[in-house]
Amino acid sequence: MSQEILRIVHAGALRQPLARCVEAFWETRPGVKVEMFAAGSRECARRVMEGLPFDVLALADPAIFAEFLVPDLVNDYFVLATDQIVLAYERLSRYRETINTQNWVDILLSGEVTYARSDHNLDPCGYRTLLVWKLAEIYYQRRGLFERLSTGCGPEHIYPKSIDAAVGLLEGRADYAFLYSSVARQLGLRYVSLPARINLSNPSYAQYYSAVYVAVEGKFPHSPTIIKGAPIEFAVGLAKGASVYAREFVELLTGRRGQEILESCGLIPC
After folding, report:
1. With contact defined as beta carbons under 8 Å apart, do 198 and 231 qualify?
2. Terminal C-alpha separation, the chain
3. What's the CA gap between 90 and 184, in Å, rounded?
4. List of domains in the chain
5. Around Cβ 2, how many Cβ atoms within 10 Å?
6. What angle, 0 to 180 degrees and rounded to 10, lies between the N-to-C axes of helices 244-254 and 15-26?
7. What helix, strand, coil percent values describe the chain, rounded to 5?
8. In this structure, how many other beta carbons lie within 10 angstroms of the beta carbon of residue 140?
9. Biggest alpha carbon distance in the chain?
10. How far apart are CA 238 and CA 222, in angstroms?
């Protein structure tokens, strides 16, 4: 008899909590083989549309389900957790001893440091970083700040997904990186917390966040999608006709055990 397989396609930022949930799942389903594929969430959706097999899909933005996958490939999806964008650094980053919530912009624009982000066309952390920069221009009342920050982050410092930007930071290819706070915490990175009006963490600022937007590659060629600022959410969905194992895994992930794992990995369960 062939071995049962559970295929999980997921945002790179969710790798650690999902891997820990798989370990918990194996406690009751040890015979199920689990295959995991990670990419930026928009890239995950495109790969699934192109035929990548999946049972469970965990993404860094619930809006991607509605844009790409519902109702053809996914019926239901659920918000899992929230997070915030931070400016992460490591022990050898230049100006690590002096950077803070007040001076981070000036340090990044000094020309003496390098900073990274993920690709906004592939990964929600990438377009959320651009939204953070636009909100920072408003918050600090510095005209042209978004353009200056964009120009200062060259192509060599733009990575396919946020976890890749984190690895670049750890390997010394950048002094700073815009990441989710959960990813920074999982990797033991230090970080600067940004003001709540900038970091996309607070639902009470949803209207304020929505004043800014960016364009990304859409579902079809030459049809860009406009992404408005919004509080960060992660979500999970099931493939249509998903197996009982997929449903059990999502029940674990969204239940008490899964929430404990998400929280221990720095996310805020919903």
Report:
1. no
2. 39
3. 10
4. 5-82+233-269 (3.40.190.10), 85-216 (3.40.190.10)
5. 5
6. 120
7. 40, 25, 35
8. 13
9. 65
10. 29
Beta strands in 138-260 (DSSP E): 158-159, 176-180, 190-193, 213-216, 225-228, 233-239
Dihedral sign, CA of 244, 15, 35, 67? positive
Alpha-carbon gap, residue 45 to 65, rounded angstroms: 8
pLDDT reported for residue 1: 44
Q: Percent of the chain scored above 90 by pLDDT?
A: 96
Span 149-199, pLDDT tens digits: 999 999 999 999 999 999 999 999 999 999 999 999 999 999 999 999 999
Which tokens is 118 given?
């993920």
Pairing of strands 5-11, 33-39: parallel
Query: E strands of the chain, at which residues?
Result: 5-11, 33-39, 56-59, 74-82, 85-89, 115-118, 158-159, 176-180, 190-193, 213-216, 225-228, 233-239, 268-269
Burial label for 141, CB within 10 Å (0-12, 13-18, 19+), is: exposed
Kindly report the average pLDDT of the chain as a whole number: 96
Residue type, 104: W
Determine the Cα angle at 68 with ends 65 and 73, to 5°: 75
Structure tokens at 160: 């396919």
Per-residue pLDDT reduced to its tens digit, 51-104: 999 999 999 999 999 999 999 999 989 999 999 999 999 999 999 999 999 999
Token reading at 111: 């020309």
